[in-house]
Amino acid sequence: MKTAIITDSNSGITQSEAKKLGISVVPMPVLIDGELFFEDLTLSQKQFYEKLKSDANVSTSQPNPIDVGEIWAEALKENDAVIYIPMSSGLSETCRTLQHYAETEEQFKGKVFVVDNQRISITQRQSAYDAIKLANEGKTAQEIYDYLMDTKMQSSIYIMVDTLKYLKKGGRLTPAVAAIGTLLKIKPVLQIQGDKLDQFAKVRKLTDAKTTMINAIKHDFETRFKSLREAGKMTLCIAHTDNNEEAEKFKTEIGETFPDVEITFLDPLSLSVSCHIGPGALAVACAIKY
Asked: Where are the alpha helices (DSSP H) in 196-270?
């Protein structure tokens, strides 16, 4: 059985990278002042942050299922099945919408497997890489789907937010809380444990944020991921929002703290997350690797 691997641009995999990997990436739609753009096609990371910083009205949207279906249909011309890895259903309704579409459209029934394995950004990228390896080994679409679902909770993401402005703008903080937080120069550390973006800790300095995130990963490695780390099955990834220089420094610190664990990716966070937390963020993730 020949299986096509498809993900969306929330994974951080660019269109050019996708061609080299032999997969497809669905570009996510972004609305800027009412105008529709598509990530990495008609909207670059640089353009996105220019608009975000200029206080334009920026929001992300679900892709049109018909457009995604066309990509699936094209892939099925040369493949027996499709594994589709979208962003977590805990962060968007996109996953459930496309699951329903795959299950109800006759041409996709039993051929398109929509994986809701609770991933986003760098952990979603890892899932896509795992799926590619499994497909290259000749695993069936069902086997690939089962692996990704069985390991869905074996990842963590911790994110330092540099400004409260965008959390306030998105309605995730009340104006009063945002004002007090800004006055006290609070930098929240958020977490994604499969589902939603939740608060993890509050700090005031970048160095404290880094220490908090490193300690959180250390705790994960010493508890729920202990056996996976010892078996060499865990990987580390770094992400950022328009903050590449600090991300490179953070990568060095992470590497020195966990010399036995491979750092696989250093990527910009997906626009779907960046839109809510703004520029200047740093993130570290750990995830199982196949």
From this structure: 206-222, 226-230, 244-257
